[in-house]
Design brief:
Layout (H helix, E strand, L loop, with lengths): L53 H12 L24 E2 L7 E2 L1 H6 L26 H7 L9 H12 L8 H5 L3 H21 L47 E7 L2 E8 L2 E5 L12 E5 L3 E4 L5 H5 L9 E3 L11 E3 L12 H15 L3 E2 L3 H9 L76 E7 L18 E4 L15 E4 L8 E2 L3 E3 L7 E4 L3
Parallel strand pairs: 11-14
Antiparallel strand pairs: 1-2, 3-4, 4-7, 5-6, 6-16, 7-15, 8-9, 10-15, 11-12, 12-13
Length: about 525
């Protein structure tokens, strides 16, 4: 359970009733492994039972691993990072007079959690899995040589699993408001009495224990990458195709799939100026033409395959009444489908192949990056990461700077990491085709929703694009979404998830091979 699980000592409880229809029972032939042994005892979590406090449980991780660079002062190269040092809580002017430490306000922007007024529906499994948080993605893929130990990882992931709490006791929440602080003591005493009387548990809910102590970690910062280690002279450039090279595939009455023919050619895959898992940049060759979806697969198109699928809502931050949901819709027909796993996306491709007699699949990493770059070498097909993306991509922008929530003033840092100089006009995913296409006629290759590829995730260099030959391994995701700033939506940017995991901002597009796809894409490390 995400925040708490209520069961008295000795009580037997069941999951049936919430996660299945209330009048259903487990299949008679099913004997889960868990029922064949005694329950495992609950192990204490780094000390006594207590409320989870960011200051006492998470700040020690930042002190040990992060503040060597994230201290708010200019670094050696002149850049200034945000400040994660331990500082006193700051009073937030609001109706509830909330107060949080500055490091909490900075770090919580990088985690994916429900907000105060988020989706009230029963969520699908792993919807807020720690893997979906930028903080975990950044640290997992070699963030400037930082190597967290097991306890540090456990503390960060537990914080996310508990919905990123700030305060560990009610006194810390309202202690600065005398009228409310006076209510904490009697309430805590009564709670303790009832626990002792009816549950046999005697714990002080307002107890404050010493903060965790983690040994400062030594790490080796990654040196600045050289300007470019790949000779572009070896790369064959390709010119844009004529607008007529496209085809339309019917899916159902009034529903079609548009594809664009992508020419063969060579390109530089990866980036020496990007994240560590984008290096080394190397030469890639696409030796056969293929067809690629002009748009990301929409909810309307996916419904032809699975009419029960629901892309759901994006977390909202506003009181919403009447017919409105508590969140922002992602399931409109013209929006790209999300919350489909790699397994489901591959199943869609298999269904489409059987339906049409053609061979459809997800694009390989190489095919995706090659098509995204469309013959260009800039970080994004439309230019540099500092360029105005408003007409070309749906990314995290000025819309994400503020929170339409009455208790959180705009004076705080952006609620999510955002490029606030630009505004593309969309709060969540846009109708496909709302932005300018790249030179090869492909829409939303940067932003809108991130996209599954066929490829198993492996560190570079990869001598051959292995495609889907290992269905259990993590799969690569490309392109970034409406939640990402331009740096995390570049042509070379890579993410990866478990193939069974459906993610709130990840969808897909398809490719159709003109011939059999085996041995088509060969990647050669730069000599």
């Amino acid at each position: 359970m995400r925040s708490w699980f209520t069961a008295m000592p000795g009580e037997v409880v069941s999951c049936v009733g919430c996660h299945e229809p209330q009048n259903s029972t487990p299949p008679a032939q099913s004997r889960p492994a868990a029922v064949l042994r005694e329950p495992s005892p609950i192990r204490p979590w780094y000390g006594p039972a207590r409320g989870f406090s960011f200051v006492r449980e998470v700040q020690p991780v930042l002190d040990a691993y992060c503040i060597q660079c994230h201290h708010g002062r200019p670094l050696d190269d002149g850049q200034r990072t945000f400040d994660l040092t331990a500082r006193p809580a700051q009073r937030v002017p609001s109706a509830f007079q909330m107060h949080f430490t500055p490091s909490y306000m900075e770090l919580h922007r990088f985690v994916h959690i429900p907000t105060l007024e988020s989706d009230a529906h029963l969520l699908s499994p792993r919807d807020f899995h720690a893997d979906t948080s930028k903080l975990i993605q950044i640290l997992r893929d070699d963030h400037y040589g930082v190597r967290l130990d097991a306890e540090a990882w456990d503390r960060l992931i537990t914080w996310i699993d508990l919905n990123a709490p700030a305060h560990g006791t009610w006194k810390e929440v309202v202690g600065h408001i005398p009228a409310k602080a006076a209510l904490v003591g009697p309430g805590a005493a009564r709670r303790r009495e009832l626990h002792r009387r009816y549950a046999g548990i005697d714990e002080d809910p307002e107890a404050v224990y010493p903060a965790a102590v983690l040994s400062p970690a030594a790490h080796t910062p990654i040196e600045a990458a050289p300007a470019q280690r790949v000779s572009l002279a070896k790369t064959k450039t390709v010119s844009p195709m004529s607008p007529g090279e496209s085809m339309s595939v019917p899916l159902a009455d009034g529903v079609t799939l548009e594809l664009v023919r992508i020419p063969s050619g060579s390109f530089v895959m990866g980036s020496e100026q990007g994240y560590p898992n984008e290096r080394p940049a190397h030469h890639g060759t696409i030796d056969s033409t293929f067809w690629m979806g002009r748009f990301e697969i929409t909810n309307h198109q996916y419904a032809c395959f699975d009419p029960k699928h629901d892309s759901g809502l994006e977390t909202g931050e506003v009181y919403q009444f009447g017919d409105d949901e508590r969140g922002h819709h992602l399931s409109r027909p013209e929006q790209p489908v999300v919350r489909v796993s790699w397994d489901q996306a591959m199943a869609f491709c298999d269904w489409l192949s059987r339906k049409t007699g053609r061979r459809f699949a997800l694009p390989t990493e190489a095919q995706w990056e090659y098509a995204c770059r469309s013959g260009r070498t800039d970080p994004l097909w439309y230019g540099a990461i500092d360029d105005d993306f408003s007409r070309c991509a749906n990314l995290s922008d000025a819309t994400h700077y503020t929170v339409d929530y009455p208790h959180v003033p705009n004076a705080l840092p952006p609620w999510r990491p955002a490029e606030t100089r630009f505004d593309d006009g969309w709060r969540v995913s846009a109708r496909v085709g709302s932005f300018a296409p790249n030179p090869w006629g492909l829409f939303d290759m940067h932003g809108n929703v991130a996209e599954w590829t066929r490829s198993t995730y492996r560190p570079y260099p990869v001598t051959r694009d292995h495609g889907a030959n290992d269905p259990a391994a993590r799969k690569t995701v490309r392109g970034g979404s409406w939640l990402d700033r331009p740096r995390r939506a570049r042509s070379a940017f890579r993410l990866h998830y478990e193939p069974s995991q459906a993610v709130h901002d990840v969808g897909f597009r398809v490719v159709c091979e003109e011939t059999t796809p085996e041995a088509k894409v060969v990647l050669a490390p730069n000599p």
